[in-house]
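dude i think i finally got it to work??
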Amino acid sequence: MKDRHSIRLEGYDYSRIGAYFVTVCAWRREWLFQTDAVQTIVQKTWDQLPDRFLNIKLDEFVIMPNHIHGILWIHSAVGAQFIAPIKDDNTTNKGVIVTKGVINHAPTLGMVVRYFKARSCYRIHRLDPSVAVWQRNYYEHIIRDEPELNRIRQYVRDNPKNWNQDPENVGAQFIAPIRDGTKMAPTDEFYSNIDKWEPIN
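look at this
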């Protein structure tokens, strides 16, 4: 089996309060997200993440033909580790709303992304069980300050109009930018660990 390496920042606690920029690519970067039905599933799954993880907040998000970009915030821990389900729907227990499957401790970024991928994949497979949906891993960047946050927000908003120049668009004529003599990673300039970017099959 081919050795795989982590593309996470070594030693970093990905449950820390802060903003994170995430890209998740379709399997083999195929153009899977072009139909209204699939786009609706992906958008709905993203929008529902705060229902599952009580202490995250969503920011900019875009669905491209073969990948998604999103910004999300982990903003607090709220105490207990898990609210166990009582019924399949919401119910009240001594004045506390209990929701099936809700995670109410500070999630890691990986937990959120894995849930997003698994839930959207499950829903897409109800349309077409044969399709492979997501690439195995994902790319992330820890957003350091407000100017960087604003740049990344604008990048996400501009992604659709820049699709013809997007390195994820395999039909586009793209010349990777150079920084300090090194060819930068695919997708954009915002990610950490750029020397570790590789396709993951």
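Confidence is low (pLDDT under 50) at residues 1-6, 79-100, 173-201.
im so relieved honestly
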